[in-house]
Amino acid sequence: MTVRVGIIGCGYVGLELARQLAGDHEVIGVRRSADGADAIEATGATAVRADLTEATDLAAVPDVDAVVFAASSGGRGPTAAERVYVDGLETVIEVFGGRDAPPERLIYTSSTGVYGDHNGGWVDETTEPTPTTEKTRVLLEAERVAREHAAAHGIDGQVVRFAGLYGPGRYRLQRYLDGPVTEGYLNMLHRDDAAGIVRFALEATEEPVLLAVDDEPVDKHDFADWLADECGVARPPKQSKAERLDGAALSEPAERRILTSKRCSNDRLGELGYEFSYPTYREGYRPAVEDYRNDA
Predict the structure, then answer these.
(1) HEC string of 69-129?
(2) CA 255 to CA 259: how far, in whole Å?
(3) What is the C-alpha separation between 194 and 175, in angstroms, rounded?
(4) N or C: which end of the chain has fewer CB within 10 A?
(5) Contact 88/98 with Cβ under 8 angstroms?
(6) pLDDT tens digits along 84-93
(7) How far apart are CA 166 and CA 133, in angstroms?
(8) Long-range residue pairs from 76-79, CB within 8 A, at least 24 positions apart, any chain
(9) pLDDT of 53-106, one tens digit each?
(10) At what angle do helices 12-21 and 34-42 cross, to 10 degrees?
(11) Omega before 279 cis (within 30°)?
(12) Assigned superfamily of 4-170+187-219+263-279
């Protein structure tokens, strides 16, 4: 069934989602800038320029059947994150929920960062989030808004928790090839699967929370060695967490990120029937490795 989908914050994942939905659904992408609007139009979607935190701007967005909130705070601190993820999300819900024809669904794209530290242990949708930084606490509060505030406006809210995103423009090969690489686990998700899982949530499941991560959390040292071997260069230097923290002038949130360790399970996605385009980093990094070797 064709539905009208509004993608609020139609950026890295949102543009790919728009491309995947094009042809089967009607898509409206929302960005603030003219360049952003042009990028949306290039996917075949309709672009609307609007600031998601401004109700008057959002009034220009047509009615939709489903809203995907995929905005980014631009990597800034907790204050900026709260303005986008909490205040902005509340504004979006109130604007769309107050219409004569409100959307039936809302999907909020969160982060596996809400789980906090589990000493390398496994986490899944049943694991209680224990965020360890101000920003991840903001993300968890936004999840509450997506579920409870949306429900108060008659909208079913879903949460999709993304692992670390990578893909075109975000492979960051040189960081791992140069080193030093600090110990810990990487939980990763290719951009195309991030968009694919959101589409899957829209079309095939009403699960309240989905953990979006590929099949294989990997030790950072093992990943760096694999990448170096595939690229045909020397393996990078390694360091422990203690060595990384020793004498380093790091902020408290940065230290917590280094110390945080967990492995994220996608078993529930598999049970529901989602099929990955890039099941592990081996498939996902192949284009980047080939480009590196061709340029060497």
Answers:
(1) ECCCCCCCCHHHHHHHHHHHHHHHHHHHHCCCCCCCEEEEEEEHHHHCCCCCCEECCCCCC
(2) 6
(3) 22
(4) N
(5) no
(6) 999 999 999 9
(7) 22
(8) 77/134, 77/135, 78/133, 78/134, 78/135, 78/137, 78/138
(9) 999 999 999 999 999 999 987 666 888 899 999 999 999 999 999 999 999 999
(10) 30
(11) no
(12) NAD(P)-binding Rossmann-like Domain (3.40.50.720)
Residue pair 44/19 in contact by the 8 Å Cβ criterion: yes
What's the token pair of residue 176? 């791992």
Q: What sign results for the dihedral spanned by CA atoms 153, 163, 198, 68?
A: positive
Amino acid identity of residue 142, one-letter, is: A
* The two structure tokens encoding residue 221: 């040292």
Residues listed for the chain = 296
Domain spans of the chain, in order of start: 4-170+187-219+263-279
In the chain, what are the helix, strand and coil shares in percent, each to the nearest 5?
45, 20, 35
- pTM, full prediction: 0.95
Q: Which of 4, 12, 21 is nearest to 200 (CA)?
A: 21
**Residue located via tokens 């690489």:** 181
- Could you give phi then psi for residue 11, rounded to 5 degrees? -110, -130
- With tokens 């929370």, the residue in question is 209
Q: Is 152 helix (H, G, I), strand (E, B) or coil?
A: helix
Intervals of the chain under pLDDT 50: none
> CA angle, 127 as apex, 200 and 256 as ends, to 5°?
105
Give the model's pLDDT for residue 254. 76
